[in-house]
Structures are given as C-alpha cells and as structure tokens.
Amino acid sequence: MLELDDIQSGVLRPRPSPYVATYILLRIDERSAGRELMRRLGSVVSTAAQPGSPNADLGLSVALTYHGLEALGVPRDSLDSFAWEFRQGMAARAKALADEGESSPEHWEPPLGTSDVHVVLTALSPDQARLEAALDRARTALRELGGIQALWRQDCHALSTGKEPFGFRDGISHPAIEGSGIPGSNPHETPLRPGEFVLGYPDETGGVSPMPWPDVLGRNGTYVAFRKLHQRVAAFRQYLKNAAKSPEDEEVLAAKMMGRWRSGAPLALCPFHDVPALGADESRSNDFHYSDDPTGYKTPPGSHIRRTNPRDASVAGVVRLHRMIRRGTAYGPELPDGVLEDDGVDRGLMFGFIGAHLGRQFEFVQEEWANGGDFLGLGDAKDPIGGAHDGTGDFSFPNRPIPRRLQGLPRFVVTRGGEYAFMPGLRALRWLAEIQT
C-alpha cells in the first residue's frame, strides 16, 4: 500500500480544472537556513492522503535540485545514490532532450539550468483565492528566514478557452496507479505499479525502483522534470493556413498533427469531424485504443498523442515501462483568435514530468518517441507539434486515395529553461532538516 500521508500531493493528484499555479525558484545561501526551511515546509506541504477533502485540489509542493541537496549538506554517499541524470542536471542533458539551437541552455531564461537553483516551490489551486492561501503558507515558511534568496517566479493560469495556447483541450490523460485511490482516465489501461512513479515500491519490471540512500530520504519521493516551453502560436496558425485547402481543412490538419480535435475529442472515436460534446465528456474522451487502426487512417502514427503514449500499439510490450505523469499549466496571455502575426509576448506551458525513472520515462520518450520515429517505422520524423524541427522536417499521414504530406515544419515549441528536481516525502523533508554533518 502506498503511504499516502508521506507522499506530496503534487506526485499523484491530477491538476484541477480550472486552475491557477505559481512556480518559485529559491537559492540556499546558508546551510542552516536551508535546513530550517525544510523543517518549516514539512509542516505546510500538501499530502496525497486528502482525496475528497475541501483542500484536495489545493497543493503546495517542494522539490530540490542536486545543487540544492548539496547546499543542505547531504552526505556524498547519499548524493551519489541519486539517478545519474538527476546528478548531471537538465542543462547537461540537452543533447538527449533535443534542447539544441534556439532551445539550447545558452539561451535559457536565467537562472534556469544553473547551479543557483536549489529549491522549486509549486502552488496549484482551482482559483486565485485558494492559491493565495497556499502561497501564504510558503511565505510563512520563508518569513524572517535569512540565507534564502527568491530568484524567479512564473505565474500560470487556465486560459479563458480552457485550452492550451495552441487551442487544444489539455490535461485529459492521467494514468491509474495501484494504491493511489485516484482513477485513471483510460478505462482500457490496467493500473500501473506504484514504483513507476513513487520510489521504494515494485515497478513494472517486477523489482523495486532504485532509490536514493538512506531509505528515509528516498522512500516516497520521486523525480520531477520542470520545463518552461514557449509556444509560437502565430507560427502554428500561419503554417496551418498555408498548408490547408480551406478553414475547415485547417482544423483537420491540426487534429491530424495532435491526434485530437481542438475540443479534446480523439480522432480514434470521431475521425471525420469534431464532436465537442465528446471532448468535454471525461468518461469518454480518453476511452479508446489503437488496435483497430494499425495503419493510422484515424489517428496517424506520427501524431503527438500517439507518439507520446502508443497505448496498445505493436510496441505495447514496452509502453508501460515508459508511461509518464504529465502536468501542464499555461502562462502568458492568449493570442486573440484570428491573429497570424507574432505580438512578441511570451506565452506557453510550464510542463512537469513526474516519475521514478528519469532515463527510461522522460528522457526516453523525449529522445526516442518525440524526436525520433524508428519505433513506429517513421524514420527520423519528429513530433509535428512539439518536435525539435528546423524547417526541413515532414509530417505524413494516411489518407485516401493517397497519403498526405506536410513539409517544411518549423519549430513551434522552444525550450526556455528547465530543471531536474527530486520531490521528497514528508519524512525525508524532516530528515533533511536534521542532517548531522
């Protein structure tokens, strides 16, 4: 059984809808202050043991980077027991993550990707009033505590459309996890073993997920990949308009690239036209598979959602080893409907991956499935929406009487920065506060 009262709420609970969120980065300048911060946060972060309570959707979470653990004085043998991708940090993993060119760490928004980032605080709530309540808890923890410096803040909010900046309904898919008490969104998916997402439990391989030493530090923790992703909304609209035969065809092309209509209705269930009522129905919008569509006449094999979660495709034997919890929150104002010119305003998603295996979950999907196509026989074709394009890539999809091909895909999503972090359990926070060096 998962020890829900020792697991931070941000690990298991899906994002509320609607939502507001804030991400704050801190630097620890004095070790004693950092340990005191861990002690204070241990009493105010939300746990996963509160489903159904009035504050179930009100979450304050804390995570630490490798440099943050160093700043707290975690012993070397403990530091060396963390996943090697985490120890390197996201900036050092740029090549594997296709963070090159415009997305390379040299262009990231400071202080993202630097050794100055030690603590990541996340507050998430259904509304602004309750978000402020969560932030007040964080402020209380920081109040009159010298030696801690706030470096960066990103506020996020649900757009008025309820969709992400490109115009698609978001936050639909969430895996079921044994022992969590939180149902998954796909009734066809057997619940995954808890060790895929929480350290110290059996995972899909049948073993126990490797975790940091000592057990009190690693157990009930997990890894988190935070990424700030700038979305070129105007460029996406321009591309669709230039490639399409009509306004109606623009929507078809957008749906083929994503694998869903903008309403969230999956092509797997309504391949010929959008059905907004289906997209809004949480009991049906993720209730599908691909076994009846091997060629991809309904959902193209290269579409975004089929790449990042192939479900029951021919690679299904390994899909469960790469399953991820994904969380996305939008930042920046909406680009008004019909605008095709970039207004110069920063907008996009704060993306969060949560899982016990940075390498075979987040990095594998990013490198092999999003930015490679061999696993589905697509050669070097990339994700048409989120892939690391340079203006020369193609996206082809089955179509009668002949396949259709979109050429010259530009980069629609640019990485503005990111961090690998470790989200400890509540007992681990207390251990971090009491380290004896």
TrEMBL record:
One of its GO terms (cellular component) is cytosol. Keywords: Iron, Metal-binding, Oxidoreductase, Peroxidase. GO terms for molecular function: heme binding; metal ion binding; peroxidase activity. Its cofactor is heme b. Residues 58-142 form the DyP dimeric alpha+beta barrel domain. Residues 289-309 are annotated as: Disordered. Transmembrane segments: none annotated. It comes from the Bacteria. It holds the Pfam family DyP_N. The keyword Oxidoreductase applies. PANTHER family: BLR4509 PROTEIN, DEFERROCHELATASE/PEROXIDASE. NCBIfam families: Dyp_perox_fam. This is Dyp-type peroxidase. It comes from Corallococcus exercitus.
